[in-house]
């Protein structure tokens, strides 16, 4: 708990797991990050009924996430691993086009772990047609079979933070360098939230 005089608002992230894992597994993996990171963010882990086939019921998948965000939100950002990362990275662009998450506040921040672009050409054209402006941090694993696709995804983002790690397709622990990059990303999210709060106070 922060002191009463503390006005720091923690960014709230909805966490999306990969198709063959669960919210609980992702929570355990992310839970290995140091308190200096975890203490600065509020994480909510969704157990998604994601299909094991990537684009079957894609609309239902988006609707499920949106309904969860309406009930349990508001959320400031998304954290995604594997297919959850592919989805998270695509959502701000689809949201901006009015094709997803139309009933919830704009996604402001992204944490992408083992991500890639959507494979479906029709969805991809809409998701990445404009540069994605929201602050993002991307984890690229040296041994990850998606690494090349994760690098290609970076092209769609403006000023992304990038954390390289030696592991494969997994949620890695943060080494000293990775920790510094993560903290810089969180500093940027914090500044944006503070600016937004100041704007709201001015408008009142």
UniProtKB/TrEMBL annotation:
Gene3D superfamilies: alpha/beta hydrolase
Domain Serine hydrolase: 8-52, 53-176
One Pfam family, short name: FSH1
InterPro entries linked: AB_hydrolase_fold (IPR029058), FSH-like_dom (IPR005645)
SUPFAM superfamilies associated with the record: alpha/beta-Hydrolases
Annotated transmembrane regions: none
Protein name, per record: Serine hydrolase domain-containing protein
UniProt organism field: Liquidambar formosana
């Amino acid at each position: 708990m922060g002191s009463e005089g503390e006005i720091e608002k923690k960014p709230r992230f909805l966490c999306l797991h990969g198709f063959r894992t669960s919210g609980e597994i992702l929570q355990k993996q992310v839970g290995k990050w140091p308190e200096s990171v975890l203490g600065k963010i509020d994480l909510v882990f969704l157990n998604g009924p994601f299909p094991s086939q990537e684009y079957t019921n894609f609309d239902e998948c988006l609707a499920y996430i949106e309904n969860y965000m309406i009930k349990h939100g508001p959320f400031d950002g998304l954290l995604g691993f594997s297919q959850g990362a592919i989805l998270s990275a695509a959502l701000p662009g689809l949201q901006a086009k009015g094709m997803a998450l139309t009933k919830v506040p704009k996604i402001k921040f992204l944490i992408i772990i083992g991500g890639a672009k959507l494979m479906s050409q029709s969805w991809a054209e809409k998701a990445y047609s404009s540069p994605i402006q929201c602050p993002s941090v991307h984890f690229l694993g040296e041994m990850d079979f998606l690494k090349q696709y994760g690098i290609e995804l970076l092209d769609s983002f403006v000023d992304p933070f990038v954390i390289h790690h030696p592991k494969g397709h997994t949620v890695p622990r943060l080494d000293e360098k990775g920790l510094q990059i993560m903290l810089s990303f969180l500093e940027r999210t914090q500044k944006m939230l503070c600016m937004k709060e100041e704007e709201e106070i001015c408008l009142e």
